[in-house]
Design goal:
This protein has two domains: 2-169, Hexapeptide repeat proteins (UDP N-Acetylglucosamine Acyltransferase, domain 1), CATH 2.160.10.10; 191-232. The protein is 31% helix and 15% strand. The protein contains five helices and 15 strands. Strands 3-6-9-12-14-15 form a six-stranded mixed sheet. Helix 3 (30-46) packs antiparallel against helix 4 (50-64).
Length: 235
């Protein structure tokens, strides 16, 4: 038990630059407290003491703002940062070294008493406010952008952004055991914006071809180095 607690504290110190020392983590991190309460309630749930397990999970919810159903499976070194508003459903499965930020929902999409919540594989990072819904699988080493809504499975080493989530597969070297968690959840591709920019450029090329190579204003509004100007809109 003490080995596991030391592991949890070390994992928190590695993934949160605001954490200054082990004592602060032990006393002031609700995500850690929620995980510890879940381990107790999960063991009771599997032992058949379901009402007691639910009672403990609800007490932990009241104290931490994090709701984890006692039936959910959570692997080692799971880190819930800030944590307020996190909801993890009954049949959710979370692998090792997963990072969840506040407002994350691992939700179900069926009334059937079967597997209806997502499976999160190892080393996945899920950004603030993201919703992962249904019996889908998020591949290992993936990163879910803030406020993304993910409704279909993703391959390993993906980045998901948008509503509904657009999946971008990364091309990186295989994960090494010494590699630190990928917490750059602010670095997200703009899949729709890039597609529109390519479309605008294509329309301009076609207009020049049709009009004998003359220069014309863009047929569609486009941002200037990623910034839209007030003259483009009625504001």
């Amino acid at each position: 038990m003490f080995k596991t607690i030391r592991q949890d504290v070390r994992s928190t110190l590695e993934r949160d630059p605001a954490a200054r020392n082990a004592l602060e983590v032990l006393l002031c991190y609700p995500g850690l407290h929620a995980i510890w309460a879940h381990r107790l309630s999960h063991r009771l749930w599997r032992g058949g003491f379901k009402l007691l397990a639910r009672a403990i999970s609800q007490l932990a919810r009241a104290c931490t703002g994090i709701e984890i159903h006692p039936g959910a499976g959570i692997g080692r070194n799971c880190f819930i940062d800030h944590g307020m508003g996190v909801v993890i459903g009954e049949t959710a499965e979370i692998g090792e070294s997963v990072t969840l930020y506040h407002g994350v929902t691992l939700g179900g999409t069926s009334l059937q008493k079967t597997k209806r919540h997502p499976t999160i594989e190892d080393r996945v990072v899920i950004g603030a406010g993201a919703k992962v819904l249904g019996a889908i699988t998020i591949g290992a080493d993936s990163r879910i952008g803030a406020n993304a809504v993910v409704v279909k499975s993703t391959p390993p080493d993906s980045v998901v952004v948008g509503v509904p989530g657009q999946i971008v597969v990364r091309n990186r070297p295989p994960h090494s055991p010494d590699e630190k968690p990928d917490l750059e959840h602010g670095r997200l591709p703009d899949t729709i914006g890039d597609t529109l920019a390519a479309l605008i450029a294509h329309v301009e090329t076609l207009e020049k071809r049709v009009n004998g190579g003359g220069l014309y204003a863009p047929a569609l509004h486009a941002p200037d180095h990623g910034v839209w100007h007030w003259s483009d809109f009625s504001i």
